[in-house]
């Protein structure tokens, strides 16, 4: 699972799963560039892994391109893209405003496509590469009060397969990880927004995940690292749940 | 910002400064069925390289491809791990009992079960005899059930128990007149999910790997038919067919600590076959 001499971009790498992924990739020898809207936390993670930070709103094409160009300029190329940047919206389809819908889809779905589109030309110059999209178990099954989020993550899981087809001739693999409930600032905010957070955690996390617990960000990061590395060199178009058995039920 | 058409490499990674990679299955005891050839052989050897001690079994100790020498048992020994080969028909309840008796006698414990023993018949449903159907289902599905049933009492005492069932993309998509095989593999996929749900709360993870076309003895007769080979290459998006090691690395990932929150999943290792 060595990633020595590989260059990786992690979007949304300031915190949570993205930060854990930056650390896991760096541990395997990769040079890591973090793109995020949060400058302070993003720089702190980049410093911790000896990498670079680029301020980027990946829902904008210009920012996505600047991020990939910056990584390639700094480290001489680009091999791995982890599309991890995402937002959650705890609202039903009735409550969601058009503006909210557009924002969730722009970051979670369009942003992943923009980043992939900007990254692949760099990967082709290296003779291949790997893209890992961080979707969600909400992209595989429906959840109440999360319509835009479910739609964006379902779209991302499907975009994974379409891009796997488009990029296979260039030896660029595209796969997705679908985390279950993971201990991150984003998931914590989602729990806090529930009417009864304690009851939600008990029912959702302990009862509906057969492993009976939530994931740590490092556990998701290790799945991402597997798909990013050469151990998975014949794996493309795969959508891999890391959800404690949630979607096996 | 300059355009990356003329990349200037800087700060080359210093390989020497990185710590040696740790083995991922250090000291764990793994049982691998169907170990003499192809995918099972690759898994047994990779697991030994990663520090596991092994019990391996097959109908015969010899591999089915001439290039697969020496026997798996001897390759594992080269890597300095303990290994014990047993002749076993996984469709035989008595053979499974003897096999697990050996696991208990030799190690007294088990951390990983890999179900890989399998057989393939290429036939349309009207051309399959009941005898052939029963044999394929007995090995590919009933055999998995019997090893899992015998392994669970041991796995409950493991600190990191994991079951990996080698399935097939034929377990999820129809292709190539393989009715019996596809039915058995589809059953295995559902058995995987059910074991994951039933034993997750007690810490046992259960996943599958669903390979596409892998260069094994099992696929050799079909790969040597130019028409079938063309179909395999057309459906495999990546510009190569799979190697047994591709499946072994996926099995290692699912057997080891990296996948600690993954259970009930069947991971496709098919070069993109099933995403189109």
Summarize the structure in words.
The complex is a heterodimer of chains A (249) and B (276). Chain A is an alpha/beta fold. Helix content of chain A is 47%, strand content 15%. Chain A has helices at residues 16-27, 39-48, 61-75, 98-125, 147-167, 185-192, 197-207, 217-228; strands at residues 7-11, 31-36, 52-55, 80-83, 129-134, 172-179, 239-242. The longest helix of chain B has 26 residues, at 130-155. The model of chain B is unreliable at 1-19 (pLDDT under 50). Classes of the chains: A alpha/beta (249), B alpha/beta (276). At the A-B interface, helix 3, helix 5, helix 8 and strand 7 of A face helix 5, helix 8 and strand 7 of B.
Provide tags for this entry.
heterodimer, A: 249 residues, alpha/beta, 7-stranded parallel sheet, 8 helices, 7 strands, 47% helix, 15% strand, globular, B: 276 residues, 38% helix, disordered N terminus
Give the overall shape of chain A, derived from the CA principal axes.
Answer: globular
From the structure provided, what is the oligomeric state, counting identical versus distinct chains? heterodimer
Spell the H/E element sequence of chain A.
EHEHEHEHEHEHHHE
Low-confidence segments of chain B, given as residue ranges, are: 1-19
| Rg calculated over all Cα atoms of chain B | 20 Å
- Share in helix of chain A: 40-55%
Q: Which pair of chains has the greatest number of interface residues, and how are they split between the two chains?
A: A-B, 56 and 52 residues
| Radius of gyration of chain A (Å) | 17 Å
Globally, the shape of chain B reads globular
Stretches with pLDDT under 50, minimum 5 residues of chain A: none
- Kindly state the mean pLDDT of chain B as a whole number? 92
């Amino acid at each position: 699972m060595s990633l020595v001499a590989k260059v990786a971009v992690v979007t949304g790498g300031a915190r949570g799963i993205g930060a854990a992924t930056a650390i896991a990739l760096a541990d395997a020898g990769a040079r890591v560039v973090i793109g995020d809207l949060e400058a302070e936390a993003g720089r702190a993670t980049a410093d911790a892994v000896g990498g670079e930070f680029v301020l980027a709103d990946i829902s904008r094409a210009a920012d996505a391109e600047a991020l990939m160009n910056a990584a390639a300029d700094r480290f001489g190329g680009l091999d791995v893209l982890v599309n991890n940047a995402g937002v959650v919206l705890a609202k039903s389809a009735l409550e969601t405003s058009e503006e909210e819908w557009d924002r969730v889809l722009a970051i979670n779905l369009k942003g992943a496509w923009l980043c992939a589109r900007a990254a692949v030309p760099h990967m082709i110059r290296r003779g291949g590469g790997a893209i890992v999209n961080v979707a969600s178990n909400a992209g595989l099954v429906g959840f109440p009060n999360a319509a835009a989020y479910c739609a964006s993550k379902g779209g991302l899981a499907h975009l994974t397969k379409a891009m796997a087809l488009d990029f296979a001739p260039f030896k660029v693999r595209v796969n997705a990880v679908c985390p279950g409930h993971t201990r991150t600032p984003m998931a914590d905010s989602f729990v806090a927004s529930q009417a009864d957070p304690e009851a939600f955690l008990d029912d959702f996390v302990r009862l509906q995940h057969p492993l009976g617990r939530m994931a740590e960000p490092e556990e998701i990061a290790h799945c991402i690292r597997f798909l990013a590395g050469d151990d998975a060199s014949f794996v493309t178009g795969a959508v891999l749940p890391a959800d404690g058995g949630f979607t096996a039920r | 910002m300059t355009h990356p058409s003329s990349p200037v490499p800087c700060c080359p990674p210093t390989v020497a400064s990185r710590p040696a990679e740790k083995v991922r299955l250090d000291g764990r005891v793994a049982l691998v069925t169907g170990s003499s050839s192809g995918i099972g052989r690759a898994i047994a050897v990779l697991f030994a390289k990663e520090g596991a001690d092994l019990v391996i079994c097959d109908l015969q100790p010899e591999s089915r491809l001439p290039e697969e020498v020496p026997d798996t048992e001897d390759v594992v020994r080269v890597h300095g791990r303990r290994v014990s080969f047993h002749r076993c028909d996984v469709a035989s309840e008595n053979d499974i009992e003897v096999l697990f008796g050996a696991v208990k006698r030799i190690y007294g414990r088990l951390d990983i079960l890999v179900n890989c023993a399998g057989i393939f018949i290429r036939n349309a449903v009207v051309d399959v005899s009941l005898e052939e159907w029963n044999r394929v289902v007995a090995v590919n599905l009933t055999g998995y059930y019997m090893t899992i049933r015998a392994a669970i009492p041991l796995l409950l005492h493991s600190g990191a128990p994991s079951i990996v069932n080698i399935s097939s993309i034929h377990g999820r998509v129809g292709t190539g007149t393989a009715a019996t095989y596809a039915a058995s593999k589809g059953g295995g996929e559902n058995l995987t999910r059910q074991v994951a749900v039933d034993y997750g709360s007690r810490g046992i993870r259960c996943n599958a790997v669903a390979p596409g076309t892998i260069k094994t003895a099992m696929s050799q007769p079909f790969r040597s038919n130019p028409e079938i080979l063309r179909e395999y290459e057309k459906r495999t998006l990546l510009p190569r067919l799979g190697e047994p090691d591709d499946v072994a690395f996926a099995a290692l990932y699912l057997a080891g600590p990296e996948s600690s929150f993954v259970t009930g999943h069947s991971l496709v290792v098919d070069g993109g076959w099933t995403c189109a």
